[in-house]
Amino acid sequence: MTIRTVVWNEFAHERENPVVRDIYPDGIHAVIAAALGREADIDVSTATLDEPEHGLSQARLDATDVLLWWGHKSHGDVSDAVVERVADRVHQGMGLIVLHSGHFAKVFKRLMGTPCSLRWREAGERERLWAVNRAHPIVQGVGPSIELPNAEMYGEPFLVPEPLETVFISWFEGGEVFRSGLTYQRGAGRIFYFRPGHETYPIYHNPEIQTVLRNAVRWAYNPVAWPDVAEAPNVPVAEAPETIEAKGASLHQAGEAGFR
Amino acid sequence: MTIRTVVWNEFAHERENPVVRDIYPDGIHAVIAAALGREADIDVSTATLDEPEHGLSQARLDATDVLLWWGHKSHGDVSDAVVERVADRVHQGMGLIVLHSGHFAKVFKRLMGTPCSLRWREAGERERLWAVNRAHPIVQGVGPSIELPNAEMYGEPFLVPEPLETVFISWFEGGEVFRSGLTYQRGAGRIFYFRPGHETYPIYHNPEIQTVLRNAVRWAYNPVAWPDVAEAPNVPVAEAPETIEAKGASLHQAGEAGFR
Amino acid sequence: MTIRTVVWNEFAHERENPVVRDIYPDGIHAVIAAALGREADIDVSTATLDEPEHGLSQARLDATDVLLWWGHKSHGDVSDAVVERVADRVHQGMGLIVLHSGHFAKVFKRLMGTPCSLRWREAGERERLWAVNRAHPIVQGVGPSIELPNAEMYGEPFLVPEPLETVFISWFEGGEVFRSGLTYQRGAGRIFYFRPGHETYPIYHNPEIQTVLRNAVRWAYNPVAWPDVAEAPNVPVAEAPETIEAKGASLHQAGEAGFR
Amino acid sequence: MTIRTVVWNEFAHERENPVVRDIYPDGIHAVIAAALGREADIDVSTATLDEPEHGLSQARLDATDVLLWWGHKSHGDVSDAVVERVADRVHQGMGLIVLHSGHFAKVFKRLMGTPCSLRWREAGERERLWAVNRAHPIVQGVGPSIELPNAEMYGEPFLVPEPLETVFISWFEGGEVFRSGLTYQRGAGRIFYFRPGHETYPIYHNPEIQTVLRNAVRWAYNPVAWPDVAEAPNVPVAEAPETIEAKGASLHQAGEAGFR
């Protein structure tokens, strides 16, 4: 069985900035998709902001097991309807991998419920990601740490909820630290935030980063379908697991739907 | 120092339904406020849906330490602007206590990032809340369990994130269970979800329920002010904790704000 | 690749009590092993208390991926050396599934760090396990709840640490609740506590319970080997990731081992 | 009400090593106790390894609200009986603050259930502790980070369970990171692990470190007494919250204690 994977990218910097274009001539999504698509169990395609519905129609999302998200300067251009649609699919079981500046993507903030703010500096400094949870499936195949010679700095405090698991913590040359790999569950969906990926450095060409992304796709894949996860069904008295009789006053008539 | 506490209520059922009016002639908020206001360290006031800005102006929220939220049939009438304002204040450090049917309140879904769905039945059945974390400040002064002779049933699965702490779990006469007391942190703010409180039963008149609410107000109170919690400040190279020199290409000009 | 699985049982009640013997003539371990062994990916064997080293020699444990543990009246007869050996292997990556009265097994208390105490009643009452986290791999293939017509009651508070995930919560006929399925990570090893299994009822013959056990074995299996997980290696100055020079006073001579 | 606080120190290096003696002529415990004792709400005393029962008799522990623990070279000399006694008191509600090399103290390993291993280097390098959870009571009164000019390095992976909260993360000059402030609950007791404190540097003289210690004492203080936390009481049929009749076979006779 293959994991149907979509790599989403706003695809803006690569078309506007020559430095970025040199590194990612076909876009960041193309490089990530190529890295994932080498694996027999991953069936990968891409989607970008300027496609109709940003390439994320309901039918497309319904046929997606894991979505990767790269966005930066165009967060505000992502339609709220698509954001809700993606969040709904995560709740139903789709995995989501949020990359780098995606910390401020609408859909990440929507799923975290927090500001997702941080400190930052663009100085091409050295970053070293330490695998804090070395037994985690996401870090298999990489060493104790991953070193990136040039990276944008993200510094704590990172305003996200306490994670399910802290997988990576980054050290920066300039003196800061950052929780760079964090896992969450929201509804039936698994979420992995992965920090590296600034567009002016060739980070997604790094073999260890690619290994982490492949691991993350497999970890985020949950072969569970829960289409009505957001429903709040009434359990009538006659269908209660234990025999009971209704007592006291009621607000609802029998068969009435709940308020929402 | 007193904890500036606001009890918010949509205040609809009490004006429309004679059963509810008999139990809460001045509204659910009035009974809760009276229970909290007996304490010297809690300074309590109330707010309702039909006040201007639902009684939750920016100035009012800025002067609020802990907000309690009761809503049910009018979730959809709460303005999105007020929801964002409340969420922002939670991020900045305001405590939030979400009551009963508030599981579907816009602001709770906003802060959880999940559907917050559940199963339900209105049969006046018996509920028993077990204090799972008996050492938690929220359960002090109540026994091993709280018994409610008549309650609406809420059943698992409850679609919220794994909590920081599970404080109460409910047993229902009809055969279901529910995580009835859960804690979270979002930004600097502490959140407590507390299940009991159906409007057709006198639950907020129960002395043990009132004790839990008072404990929860004190627990949720965090004397921290973080007004710019959502900001993502740049840390210029010259202000890096360690001396570094900028290397490689940059996307941003010096002094430019980040994208969001 | 198969998951090398060992089912451990103290194997006492089945030999001493006719009621238990009727249900488990060859021991609880035999029934569990048969249920697991039907699967092509699980390679199962058993071990019992009165074997040399309780059947858990270092060589045997080193060749074990997942260990299931059933104990009750003989907790005190398990040698401390074997307990440490099992705990060490969990830290190195072996999965551990602790069953029912194993909550008081030395190795479970050793790995939790808490009393693992609870309330109990042996009245053959009805139990219903609700799948709180319906998207979890451990609950796939079973319905929203599992009903056991006769069970020993375990009641909260259950003195374990906040779990990584709450998977099942039980409802009991007599009015109590219990967190019946909990996950943990200790070192590189995954741990699942699963409540059902009282020896006077045919609980491990139940097909849904058997499905949960098979799921749990697969979930607990972590193909990671970390034999030196407990070591605290020195990182000499010359091997620091960044070039540094030693400053200030030192307690240790170069090459000296740390204290423990 | 004052918080009855005991600072425990093995008190070995200070008597054997002139560098350490110069920094802590009366012992590390004396400096910490002086820092805590300036506060009106903290009533502080000290205890050391070579006192009878290491200064931690049952009576002393029963009258202790919060215990701080500094040990390094003498972990192996701490009696197992005292370790169990301290762990039992934590379960009953006593707070515990474990300092620096206490990561390998018997009582910390006992309460964590993990190896508590890490990487280390004694090079007097610079450490910067970032307050990851800036809203936490333990970090109030200190800046975004605490800088220590000379520190022993501790590096990840740190083999402890996922914490309740990650409070501090350290950056080291030599290139490593470490989760330097972590909270846990074990039984009714709150535990804070705090990394800084190497004996060859004057770290406990640092005013910000002292502020953290004072905050931690107040956070760890839980005015709850649960002396029988480890008991597993039987709930007889006649005292079940719901009326039930015993069904099926039983292993235990009425009134019998459970196995352990």
UniProtKB/TrEMBL annotation, chains A, B, C, D:
Superkingdom to which the source organism belongs: Bacteria
InterPro entries in UniProt: Class_I_gatase-like, ThuA-like, Trehalose_catabolism_ThuA_prok
A Pfam family reported for this protein in Swiss-Prot or TrEMBL: ThuA
SUPFAM superfamilies: Class I glutamine amidotransferase-like (SSF52317)
Domain ThuA-like, first and last residues per copy: 7-220
Protein name: Trehalose utilization protein
